[in-house]
Amino acid sequence: MREARTQCCTDWEATEANLPDKGLSPRLSEESAVDMCDDPTNDPDYQPTEQGDGICSTRHEPIPDIDDVDELTPPHIEPKYLVFESSLMGLFNLCPECHGESQGRISHIRGSLIVINHVCQNQPQPCGFNRKWYSQPFIGNIPAGYSGDERSKCSSFIVHQRLYLQPAIVNTWERMQFKMVEDLKESEEKLVIGGDARNDSPGHTAKYGSYTFLEQNLNKVIHVELVQKNEVANSYQMELEALKRGIAWLQTMELEMRTIITDRHMQVTAWIREELTKKEDIKHYFDVWHISKGIKKKLRAAAAMKDCGLINDWIKSITNHLYWCASSSPDGDGGVMAAKWASIVKPHYEHPCP
């Protein structure tokens, strides 16, 4: 008989501390199963077929004994059935030891798992039979029919994530990452990396920070670094630390970088200038979205001042012009982009509205 392990649900541990071994649900004998089948001839609409009545297969095929069941059958391919409660509880009216009267009582319901206490109540003297019946086997500490809908009530949702979901995600990511690295090596082109950090909470109270590396030619994320606050002096330094680790990973993978694009983080900018631009001749550009965000913020602040509301009408045009300055200069010539940007000043003096 297949054994199952104790549940990992917190509330079960408190109420079911001394659970006996759990097994598969009992099978009916062939005679009992036949008795439970209705006689098809009692149905006035019954029409017999060549294959037989087709109502109860146990009339033709014997029910296998529990010892004949393949113990190695995975639960996910084992047949499953929907059973009404009245029909299920009817199986517990007979004591399997003394064949006297017994009673079954549902003690726990967790999603699709049902736990039933089966106790002999034969009169005048019960035989003492007492067991717990479980409607499904267990995989480790998790019911085989476990549903994620129980996550708010059962801590096994976290266990399920840790044992199955997270390893599957990590395995898939590592295989995809390995394939991307191999493709980049075969192309023999130097990388154009766009990087940015994101913390688990805003401000300076973040505990974790992740730094994502996007290869612009592939337009795919090739690496992600995660840093915890206690690994650095404060949360502000997590971005720089994650960037350093990511650059080290690229060097370990023997991938050469030609260009890196980041935001205007002061520590990141200084480190790239000293360690990458001067030593390895790697070009550093600022992401236009971050620059546009900063300019837009200043324009809105200016528009809130007295008699400056007209600036609001120009914000969209100014930010669009900034994007055009960058997109129309594919070589990244800073002097050309600066001249294009400065050209916006004169038309704004001549035209009060965009």
UniProtKB/TrEMBL annotation:
Residues 32-42 have a biased composition (Acidic residues). Residues 18-54 are annotated as: Disordered. It comes from the Eukaryota. PANTHER family: SI:CH211-108C17.2-RELATED-RELATED, SI:CH211-211K8.4-RELATED. The lineage of its organism: Eukaryota, Metazoa, Echinodermata, Eleutherozoa, Echinozoa. It comes from Stichopus japonicus (Sea cucumber). This is Uncharacterized protein.
